[in-house]
């Protein structure tokens, strides 16, 4: 269904995803972006959301009409160029909500109950000398979500049984039973736990700055499962170093996969290596949705998940 030599795979995919891709099509692989582009009659590009697609690469292949990215975030794509040149883009929304929300909830509980530290306490036999320190209960707390989209709404539903009060912010109110705040600063002030679930755009860059962290306050927790760019990392490090917030759980960073090492020496953080969607089931589902988009494109069907920006 997909013509031979018509899809250029840009960058590496994990083994399980590559196997799924190869089961359904035979893309020409362009793994090293510094190497010359292989020859072919490419009409589409397949890429992961953690691989940045250089505009210069697409400029060299004027026949490209679709970029299918594997991931819900598409901040890796040069969208203005794609739009200006009538090149479609697709992403993989929805199929990763479960994995991302499960991680987000796990990060929140691990941070607040200090689960990694308490495991070390047992392993180091410190427990035999004194009981572990007291932590804090989630029930009764106020939870804010910046970005009440697919992941934000799924997260809110999963939070309800934890007996918390839920509020959110975003460009406009949604039809959801939670309190809406117009600004993230107001939301932070009204939150004990602040989740970030918005996209990385020019408008969300450093959305969480020193003022927002100050509003969150010394008993407030920040959980970032969105993108590193949404947080001013310098301000966050400063707030963590001076206990101006209680803690932060971060799955995403400015400089991945080499985040600022100043985070490593802090004892009020929980750090994970951008693993929101990193389960086998989810990665297979994401790959299949990306390939479904390619198939729809080549059979002139509507794309199942076109990016409309
Ligand atoms: P989505 O359905 O598009 O939801 C994003 C929400 O953010 C929308 O409701 C949007 O509002 C809102 N938003 C836009 N600008 C905002 C702002 N300035 N302040 C607050 N909210 C704002 O996307 P999704 O599927 O939920 O995914 C959200 C993001 O999560 C992705 O873009 C991606 O970067 C990140 N993510 C991370 C991982 C990970 O591995 N950690 C995995 C998956 C996704 P409108 O509806 O009004 O536009």
Care to describe what's here?
- Residues 105-276 form the D-isomer specific 2-hydroxyacid dehydrogenase NAD-binding domain.
- This is D-isomer specific 2-hydroxyacid dehydrogenase, NAD-binding protein.
- It is a single chain.
- By secondary structure, the protein is an alpha/beta fold.
- It folds into 2 domains: 7-91 and 279-299, NAD(P)-binding Rossmann-like Domain (Rossmann fold), CATH 3.40.50; 96-271, NAD(P)-binding Rossmann-like Domain (Rossmann fold, 3-Layer(aba) Sandwich).
- It has 10 helices and 12 strands.
- The longest helix is centred in the C-terminal third of the chain and has 19 residues, at 280-298.
- It is elongated and about 65 Å long.
- It starts with 6 loop residues before the first strand and ends in an 11-residue tail after the last helix.
- NADP nicotinamide-adenine-dinucleotide phosphate is lined by residues 72-73, 93, 96, 100, 146-152, 169-172, 197-200, 203-204, 207, 225-227, 251-252, 274, 276-277.
CATH topology name of the largest domain: Rossmann fold
Mean pLDDT: 97
Question: What count of structural domains?
Answer: 2
Give me the strand/helix succession. Answer: EHEEHEHEHHEHEEHEHEHEEH
Overall CATH architecture of the largest domain: 3-Layer(aba) Sandwich
- The shape, in one word, is elongated
For the biggest β-sheet, the strand order reads: 8-7-6-9-10-11-12
Number of helical runs?
A: 10
Q: Report the CATH superfamily of the largest domain.
A: NAD(P)-binding Rossmann-like Domain
Low-confidence stretches: none
The percent of residues in helical segments reads 25-40%
* Radius of gyration, taken over Cα atoms and rounded to an integer in Å: 21 Å
Largest sheet: 7 strands, parallel
In total, the number of strands is: 12
Q: What oligomeric assembly is this protein in? A: single chain
Distance between the termini: 28 Å
Q: For the record, what CATH class of the largest domain applies? A: Alpha Beta
Structural class: alpha/beta
What bound compounds does this protein have?
A: NADP nicotinamide-adenine-dinucleotide phosphate
